[in-house]
Specification:
Layout (H helix, E strand, L loop, with lengths): L1 H5 L21 E6 L5 E6 L12 H12 L1 H4 L4 E4 L6 H8 L4 E6 L3 H14 L8 E6 L7 H4 L11 E5 L8 H11 L7 E6 L7 H4 L2 H7 L2 E10 L12 H5 E9 L6
Parallel strand pairs: 3-4, 3-6, 4-5, 6-7
Antiparallel strand pairs: 1-2, 7-9, 8-9
Helix pairs in contact: 2-4
């Protein structure tokens, strides 16, 4: 009996049949065309639920906004992007002369690894006077690890880039907490909050972020509404014009917070 058990063969019983698992989707690449004519090429995590296979309108618009105002807004400044996804605005800030540009998103290995890949891919475009960093960061968490990227003596970031992050009503408190901890206490410091209401019926709830920011020590200024040529998701429901619109706000410290 023992000899029979010793000679027992399973053959291919435990081998997965060919094609049993779907192959992993290959990453795709996209290009952002800067106003200067330079091209920023980034890799996208094709099926990642946090941002998918797209460059979002708010990210592109944020990048153009900071490029147009780079002399006053970006050059020699310290910049933090939260919810960066592929990280185009962070990369553009570094290209346009930010002293420090820190690209962050949720601390998921795939997301952080992809941002790091994009930072390395764009390195030839970044001047030697700028530094571009990548890290994982969960909104509302302590910001000391991010502040550690700043030059000695710096107390916070001059610019926060917040593109398409206010969609989540439940995260508004954590976003404001991050602003309070990360934004330098200076009248020139600014958080750029730029978004598109992909679910237009939720726009009133999204917009509650701004009075809540004012209740917590900030001054809010709406700076633009930009109508894009086409919607990003053609088959989505809701008002098409709103789904094509990018809203832009600048948020600064209220005067009574600077005394």
């Amino acid at each position: 009996m023992a000899d029979a058990e010793d000679n027992f063969e399973t053959g291919d019983l435990f081998k997965d049949p060919e094609g049993f698992y779907e192959p992993e989707k290959e990453p795709t690449f996209a290009e952002h065309h800067m106003l200067s004519g330079q091209k920023v090429r980034v890799r996208l995590v094709g099926d990642h639920p946090l941002y998918g296979n797209l460059l979002w309108n708010a990210g592109r618009t944020s990048s153009h906004y900071i490029e147009e105002r780079a002399h006053d807004l970006i050059e020699g400044k310290d910049v933090l992007e939260i919810g960066a996804a592929a990280g185009v605005p962070s990369i553009v800030a570094a290209i346009k002369g930010a002293r420090t540009s820190v690209m962050t998103d949720y601390p998921d290995p795939d997301l952080v690894g992809n941002m790091r890949f994009n930072a390395e891919l764009s390195a030839p475009l970044v001047p030697s006077t700028s530094s571009l960093h990548v890290d994982g960061y969960k909104w509302g968490n302590p910001v000391e690890p991010l502040l550690a990227y700043l030059p000695a003596g710096s107390t916070g970031f001059d610019v926060l880039i917040m593109a398409d992050v206010v969609y989540s009503y439940r995260e508004h408190g954590n976003l404001i907490k991050t602003m309070q901890m990360a934004l330098k206490k200076s009248p020139d410091s600014v958080a750029l909050v730029i978004f598109t209401p992909y679910e237009p019926w939720l726009l009133p709830r999204t917009e509650t972020f701004f009075p809540r920011a004012e209740e917590n020590g900030f001054r809010v200024t709406k700076v633009f509404e930009k109508l894009m040529d086409a919607v990003l998701f053609e088959n989505d429901p809701g008002d098409e014009k709103l789904r094509r619109t990018v809203f832009g706000y600048e948020i600064r410290w209220a005067d009574d917070q600077l005394n």
